Amino acid sequence: MNPPSRTDFVSLTLTGQGSGIYNNNKQWRRQSCWRKWKLLSRLQRNLILFTVALMLVCGIATNPSVTEHFRGLAVVAKEEGDHALKPAIHEVQPELDKLNRPLVPESPSEKQKRAAHKRGPPGLQNRLQKKGNVSDTQVEKEEGENWRVAMIDQATERRTAKEAANKVDVPEVEQEGHSHKEPEVDRLEAVRDAFRHAWKGYKEFAWGKDELRPMSKSYGEWFGLGLTLIDALDTMWILNLKKEFEEAKTWVSTELSFDKDVDVNLFESTIRILGGLLSTYHLTGDTLFLDKAKDIGTRLMPAFNTPSKIPYSDVNIGKGTAHPPRWTSDSTVAEVTSIQLEFRELSRLTQDTRYQAAVDEVMQKVHKLEGKQDGLVPMFINTNSGQFTHLGMFTLGARADSYYEYLLKQWIQGGKKETALLEDYLQALEGVKKNLLKKSSPNRLTFVGELSHGRFSPKMDHLVCFLPGTLALGAHHGLPAEHMELAKQLMETCYQMYAQMETGLSPEIVHFNMHEGSIGDVDVKLADRHNLLRPETVESLFYLYRFTKDRKYRDWGWEILQNFNKYTKVSTGGYTSINNVRDPEYPSPRDKMESFFLGETLKYFYLLFSDDPELLSLDKYVFNTEAHPLPIWPTAQ
Ligand code: DMJ
């Protein structure tokens, strides 16, 4: 064979074939390949090597588990504010230790279970698990003499007896040929354990800071106001965590100061801080919390000094100045219409009408605005003109959700007299039914999609899962029974958003399939696979259980709690948001415990499992959008 000429193309000659002898033994093939390789020019060899290397790199980079891994390492929570245009979170850069494999050390049996876990889209199934992750920690039994000063209508006095009734008998299981009965699981105690574990991390690594970063054993600051601690105050009271509550109260009385040159988001600080302080005041009767509530409420008032009286999104609580975000003069509709319960209550308690007047004016203006479609509101409103902007886009998810929730809840708070609120609520529900409500394929799950300039999108945020609870609450307060029917259907859908995921935890956003012949109901885009420990589904389960007493809602909640324990619990303390609910092998921790996990999620779990309907009776209290109970006004009853 003649050596190939040094041209810039690859030329291979198959010698064996030409001789008519077919030799295919390994040795021959190896030598023949090597000979051919040596016959190639340097350029040809380099070209081939480069192509192979390129293919390898592309292959690795497009492997989802690898990309998820890098995302997990690099992520700085993308856009987590639900309503805010863009909250600025200033993370304190911690010393990073092991960011890989965050979760509690697994037992060998758990490892086996995970190894056996099938990947790929599962069908509709109830993933109810039989055992809980209940630690041995015991409840503190002793009641302090004066601790429960003005307890919730003596409700908790009845709690202990009723809690005993909340033990769950777990079915017999076969193990290594022996049949034995699993111990009873006390679900309320499991929630307390989860709280204690979360609090342990917060106390050790983030005490007095806004948020725990459990993986790096550090903290993040947003407003610099001890957000998690304040958000969690009433949860500790309700869960009867006396020692933890007292420590937190001491911090509030000795360390918490709002006299600080910081920009805070009006909506977030109202629902979490003002709401948290007001509800803690109601539960404890301790005026420390009312004084603090009045202080922060007053410092937030400059937000309303705008040409339109539609508040700015940000306030400097030290300087008394307010402003919109740097890039727009818009606020989101949810932000400006979901601060009313708190400011109205502040006026009632302080007899200072300015707070209520400011937020009522916002509602009156929004009530009259052009740009709604069948009662549905756009997502943005301009603080100069007072008009909606970005017309034609409608969602019950981020940036609009709690507008609908607060229409109903203000109506309830004020004694069902403010008919404009009720009218807007009822009209909006008609708008939902007409424009946003569809069924998925193949299982005909009812879901709430979105509308953009007349075009329907089958996208549903997890945030929308507040809706079953709100619908049920409305039905309980005398609205049509069909609201309850819709609530039940949507509740099933929200549950399936968890059950159909490989970790049993819902992603942030799902897309429902609507075409015939779809294999599963739910699709999840890569960028939407995170779970931030959000409360909405558990919140709705609580309402649905309270009103129907159907135990399946409790069982669904129990299943979800166990999956939080399995995939988000960090062994050194705290729980973390995760990046990928579809990968039980590596859910990829985000290193952040949102304050609402303690303020809302765990509180709703506890209320779901409690047998006492008088523990925060829904005829006496209305929960703000951050799960802080505020009283329904007594004069109204
Ligand atoms: C909370 O801050 C509130 O529930 C708010 O209404 C929506 N977002 C978070 C929880 O997901």
From TrEMBL:
Biased composition (Basic and acidic residues): 155-183
Record's GO cellular component terms: endoplasmic reticulum membrane
Record's keyword terms, sorted: Calcium, Disulfide bond, Endoplasmic reticulum, Glycosidase, Hydrolase, Membrane, Metal-binding, Signal-anchor, Transmembrane, Transmembrane helix
Alphabetized Pfam families for the sequence: Glyco_hydro_47
Listed EC numbers: 3.2.1.-
Location (main, coarse): endoplasmic reticulum
The keyword Hydrolase is annotated on this UniProt entry: yes
Topology term for the membrane: Single-pass type II membrane protein
Enzyme category, top tier: hydrolase
Gene: LOC110535854
Official protein name in the record: alpha-1,2-Mannosidase
